[in-house]
Design a protein that fits this description.
The relative contact order is 0.12. By secondary structure, the chain is an alpha/beta fold. It has a seven-stranded mixed sheet with strand order 6-2-1-7-8-10-9. It has helices at residues 16-30, 39-52, 58-67, 72-81, 93-106, 123-136, 139-143, 153-161, 174-180, 196-199, 233-245; strands at residues 112-116, 144-150, 163-165, 181-183, 191-194, 202-206, 219-224, 247-255, 269-272, 275-277. Helix 2 (39-52) crosses helix 3 (58-67). It is built from eleven helices and ten strands. The chain has two domains: 6-81, Chemotaxis Receptor Methyltransferase Cher, domain 1 (Orthogonal Bundle), CATH 1.10.155; 93-277, Vaccinia Virus protein VP39 (Rossmann fold, 3-Layer(aba) Sandwich), CATH 3.40.50. The chain binds S-adenosylmethionine (SAM). S-adenosylmethionine is lined by residues 30-32, 82-86, 90, 118, 120, 124, 150-152, 155, 208-210, 225-227, 230, 256.
Length: 287
């Protein structure tokens, strides 16, 4: 690794050979499809990481990524190539559906777990936790668990900390904030952290959806939102089949509102925009 001067990085381009190698790598490791039109974006992001980590060229950086046994550089590159954009209560119709149509069916259970399979920096699992508390009351702390997973250890670390700057909560009123958040002081001024009992409801875990899934499950509900856009059709079909196998009979799959399972082969019933259901009925008293 060398410390290169800024002038060495004037043209943030990748040779066609390197672009193909990065593209092949992203597809093999994370299922991410980088189309030809993405050349400039990929070049800018690869160079940005090369520069930040002090490599003399994009080639030298990518060679280090390919050889890295720790996996850290790989995760870092995949992070740079995807967007982690998310927000609290994003696509609110899903949270209404959870509250009004799913939770009444699960209320009688001793325990259940909801899985968010591309949870990014945590806004999605915390929004689920708050919906559970608002619907089930204190019982939610005993009854309900959330498994939040992502390929990126970086976003998972920040999600687990549960600390967010004030502007992330702009759309949520003062009452809401005081019920669920603690205000930071000193170095954490201007930030809020979810209360410990809420953080305890969520188990964070790195899961790459391209790899065999952990044995746990089945789940009554899986969030798989705003990730399918990265995948080509065969990968989408594989991931949806794997998720379907992880759903209970009558369980639900939520995808992003701009995503749809149209045109891919699957066995789920379409319920409403971005909501799909596995055949059968959710059992109210499942152990
Ligand atoms: C745009 S965010 C979606 C966040 C959230 N689900 C939402 O809808 O707001 C997409 C997330 O997918 C994750 N991701 C990309 N490829 C993945 C893979 N192969 N396995 C698991 N997560 C992946 C990224 O790290 C990123 O955090």
């Amino acid at each position: 690794m060398l410390n290169a001067s800024p002038s060495q990085y004037q043209t943030a381009r990748l040779s066609p050979k390197l672009f193909d190698a990065v593209r092949d790598y992203a597809y093999r490791t994370a299922g991410i499809e980088l189309q030809d039109g993405k050349q400039e974006m990929v070049a800018a992001r690869v160079w940005k990481r090369a520069r930040a980590l002090g490599y003399e060229s994009a080639d030298a950086y990518f060679q280090a990524v390919s050889r890295d046994k720790s996996g850290e550089l790989q995760v870092d590159l995949i992070d740079a190539l995807t967007t982690n954009f998310t927000s609290f209560f994003r696509e609110p119709a899903h949270f209404d559906f959870l509250q009004n149509l799913i939770l009444p069916k699960l209320r009688g259970r001793n325990q259940f777990t909801i899985w968010t399979a591309a949870s990014s920096s945590g806004e999605e699992p915390y929004s689920i936790a708050v919906t559970l508390i608002e619907t089930l009351g204190e019982a939610a702390f005993l009854q309900a668990k959330i498994r939040a997973s992502d390929i990126s250890t970086k976003v998972l670390r920040s999600a687990e900390a549960g600390i967010y700057p004030e502007e992330r909560f702009r759309s949520l009123d003062q009452n809401w904030r005081s019920r669920y958040l603690l205000r930071g002081t000193g170095a954490q001024d201007g930030k809020f952290r979810f209360r410990p009992e809420i953080r305890k409801m969520i188990h964070f875990e790195r899961i790459n959806l391209m790899e065999p899934l952990p044995a746990e499950g089945p789940f009554p509900l899986i969030f798989l939102r705003n990730i399918m856009i990265y995948f080509d059709r065969p990968t989408q079909e594989r991931v949806v089949a794997a998720m379907t196998a992880k759903l209970e009979p009558g369980g639900y799959l939520f995808v992003g509102h701009s995503e749809s399972l149209n045109g891919i082969s699957h066995t789920l019933e379409h319920v409403q925009v971005a909501i799909y259901k596995k055949a059968g009925h959710l059992e109210e008293n499942r152990a």
